[in-house]
């Protein structure tokens, strides 16, 4: 029986990993700011991808380091959210709070602009494009770190941190698709 359970776990993990799309992230420093670009293509509908990307209050359950996330205000397609997280960068842990304005432009674009917080100035756009039964997701952000430690860790560390977050979003999309039988 233990061998059968072990084989089932291996098969499940293998099948799950096979459906993951590679997550590409590039980080460059430009004039003291970080330009972050991410691209991935999960095999889910744009509707499901959008639902996960905008499920702000549930995000602490599936985004590493995020300990709280709540919607403070909603006016049509514009939201104001508050988030708190603790993030590990090697041997260091950095806590951060942020309040951001989110604008939902249909199911195609999500705009984010930081309003306040310890994370520094941040703006991003996420674009969703349906492609052959999957959804291509492009993430582009400009970030001026508000923490000197984070600013000195380098683009490689930030790249891996963003890749981990995008991969966790994709994993949640796949989990929800499996629950829905899609």
From TrEMBL:
Residues 1-17 form the signal peptide. It comes from the Bacteria. Coiled coil: none annotated. Transmembrane segments: none annotated. It holds the Pfam family Polyketide_cyc. Keywords: Signal. Residues 43-94 form the Coenzyme Q-binding protein COQ10 START domain. SUPFAM superfamilies: Bet v1-like. Belongs to the ribosome association toxin RatA family. This is Coenzyme Q-binding protein COQ10 START domain-containing protein. It comes from Chitinilyticum piscinae.
């Amino acid at each position: 029986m233990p061998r059968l359970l072990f084989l089932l776990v291996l098969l499940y993990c293998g099948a799950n990993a096979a459906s993951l799309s590679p997550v590409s992230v590039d980080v460059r420093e430009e004039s003291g700011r970080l330009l972050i670009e991410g691209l991935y293509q999960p095999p889910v509908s744009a509707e499901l991808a959008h639902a996960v990307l905008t499920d702000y209050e549930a995000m602490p359950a599936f985004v590493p380091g995020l300990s709280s996330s709540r919607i403070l205000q909603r006016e049509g397609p514009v939201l104001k959210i508050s988030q708190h997280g603790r993030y590990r960068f090697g041997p260091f842990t950095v806590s951060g709070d942020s309040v951001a304005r989110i604008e939902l432009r249909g199911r195609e674009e999500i705009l984010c602009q930081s309003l306040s917080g310890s994370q520094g100035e941040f703006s991003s756009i996420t674009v969703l494009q349906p492609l052959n039964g999957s959804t291509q997701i492009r993430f582009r952000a400009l970030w001026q770190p508000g923490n000197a430690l984070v600013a000195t860790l380098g683009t490689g560390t930030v790249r891996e941190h963003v890749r981990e977050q995008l991969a966790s979003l994709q994993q949640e999309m796949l989990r929800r698709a499996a629950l829905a039988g899609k």
